[in-house]
Design a protein that fits this description.
By secondary structure, the chain is α/β, with parallel strands linked by helices. 33% of the residues lie in helices and 25% in strands. It contains 18 helices and 23 strands.
Length: 520
């Protein structure tokens, strides 16, 4: 008789630089089930699963697979035991194609066509396997496409394909639906639940209580590096799950109507050079007013990342108009001018674009004002003032896991790294806020706090643009909603917006919806 338990971690402890990230934590996933793992940012969820995936070695405790004790020497070793983890922050080699990235993660298997013939023949054989698996999952992925041209949501799909094609039967998904639309998330979770029902085991690390209630067979709650409780999600309400997760109810945030003012940012016919295809900018036109939050909804890969790059001053060859009131063409603004214009930019890729992981927490906070002279020059920093301001920001924005302001930012959990970015960007009373996936990976309480900060900025007269593939987030925040499809805004909705109408515009034929503006 086969073992019932697929993965069992008992009494796991792990510390980083003297900080106890895990303290005698326990977790058990069974074959045939979807097991959710929830907790606040910094609760230890990712650290525990990184031990299961062979990335970290525990300082104490035991790891069992199929009820047999094992010691993992690394991710390759974990892969031999058919454990695959899709991380919240992806492990892709950006210049490589989708197929090349997946090939890197494949263990050599006798008879697998991906390991026979020339390199070109191996890639062609693997591309066929990728297309087949992608079709099963409902993913639209071109195996020959370079991964640095993919949206965040598309990169996540590549990571899922990579571990499944490597043969994973214990599948760990860290925030898998954070960057997916409702339809994509439901399709993915239905797929992984079917995968579990076929005899596999799925661990779902998430902050989305609706996903837990709908798709998980069991749920384990962690807090402060310890396992709090494991229970049947159908036996507990969503408010009770939230209370278990954060120790108290998340703050309520009732919507208050906006009072929009003058147009602060005008985007006209923005197009990627030589573009026009799927994922490129294909004639984006929108107006952003002071005192309002404009939300952009859409299925990942329809130009959201390219638009965010252009607006935030990241390299993105394009044509069209991008006019900032009182300044002119925003694309001509240097990074110093953007700071002087009080433009806050919060990109989706917090580690790759927003933070320098090897620099300290204080240095990452202060880099936004180095040009102003507040902290002296880059070569002669006034560190006492810098650390004082950074300490106030860390406390004010509840950035947890900071043992010292001198610690590397790379040691922060994803949610706390996001809070550090937001603390820095909001440190100068922004007049224009550009944010992509603001609460990606944040727990319920932290998400509510971020949303509250965005509303405060709006109420203070800032123009706020929120790009998010989480439709719930867009609906909660936006005063106006633009739907992006095949590289352009195909419909606009005033609040309160009809969710079904937005969903239809997101997945419908873009050409049929062009210039359609709905007021629900």
């Amino acid at each position: 008789m086969s073992a019932q338990n697929a993965l069992q971690l008992s009494g796991i402890s792990k510390s980083f630089d003297g900080f106890m990230a895990l303290s005698h934590a326990d977790f058990t996933a069974r074959w045939g089930e979807v097991h959710a793992l929830i907790g606040e940012n910094g609760a230890g969820k990712s650290s525990l699963m990184n031990i299961a995936a062979g990335l970290y070695a525990p300082e104490s405790g035991s790891l069992l697979i199929d009820d047999n004790p094992v010691r993992l020497s690394g991710p390759r070793d974990a892969s031999r035991y058919r454990i695959g983890m899709v991380h919240q922050h992806f492990k892709l080699v950006k210049p490589f194609t989708v197929a090349e990235n997946i090939l890197l993660g494949l263990p050599e298997q006798p008879g697998n066509s991906a390991f026979t013939g020339s390199h070109r023949q191996r890639l062609r054989a693997l591309e066929a396997q990728i297309r087949e698996k992608a079709a099963q999952l409902g993913f639209a992925i071109d195996p020959a496409q370079s991964t640095d041209s993919l949206s965040v949501a598309e990169q996540q799909r590549v990571e899922i394909l990579k571990v499944l094609l490597a043969g994973a039967r214990i599948l760990i998904l860290d925030e898998p639906t954070a960057v997916l639309t409702d339809q994509e998330a439901e399709r993915l979770l239905e797929t992984v639940r079917a995968f579990a029902r076929q005899g596999a085991a799925v661990v779902l690390v998430t902050h989305k209580m609706s996903d837990v209630k709908r798709f998980a067979d069991r749920v384990t709650v962690m807090r402060g590096g310890r396992t709090l409780q494991t229970l049947d999600p159908q036996s507990v309400s969503v408010p009770e799950l939230v209370r278990l997760t954060v120790g108290e109810s998340a703050p309520d945030s009732e919507y208050q109507p906006a009072t929009p003012g003058e147009v602060r940012l005008q985007v006209r016919d923005l197009r990627s050079r030589g573009g026009g295809g799927h994922g490129a900018l294909n004639g984006v036109t929108l107006s952003l007013r002071a005192g309002e939050i404009y939300g952009i909804a859409g299925v990942g890969g329809n130009g959201q990342s390219e638009l965010a790059n252009v607006l935030m001053g990241l390299p993105e060859p394009c044509e069209g108009e991008l006019e900032l009131a009182g300044f002119g063409d925003l694309r001509r603004a240097s990074s110093e001018q953007r700071r002087e214009l009080r433009i806050a930019a919060i990109p989706a890729d917090r580690y790759g674009t927003a933070l320098a992981g090897e620099l300290s927490v204080a240095e990452n906070f202060g880099v936004g004002q180095i040009h102003s002279g507040r902290y002296g020059s880059f070569f002669n920093l006034r560190r006492r003032r810098l650390e004082r301001d950074a300490a106030e920001a860390v406390a004010g924005f509840d950035v947890q896991g900071v043992r010292s302001l001198k610690q590397k930012a790379a040691l922060l959990s994803g949610g706390n790294a996001q809070k550090l970015v937001i603390a820095r960007e909001f440190s100068r009373d922004p007049q224009l806020v550009l944010v992509h996936s603001p609460s990606r990976g944040l727990d319920v309480r932290a998400s509510a706090a971020v949303h509250a900060r965005l509303r405060v900025a709006r109420d203070a007269g800032a123009a706020v643009l929120v790009i998010s593939e989480d439709l719930d987030e867009v609906l909660a925040l936006a005063d106006r909603i633009g739907v992006m499809n095949v590289g352009r805004i195909v419909a606009e909705f005033e609040r309160p917006a009809d969710r079904q109408a937005i969903g239809k515009a997101m997945v419908g034929r873009a050409g049929a919806a062009v210039n359609e503006v709905s007021h629900e």
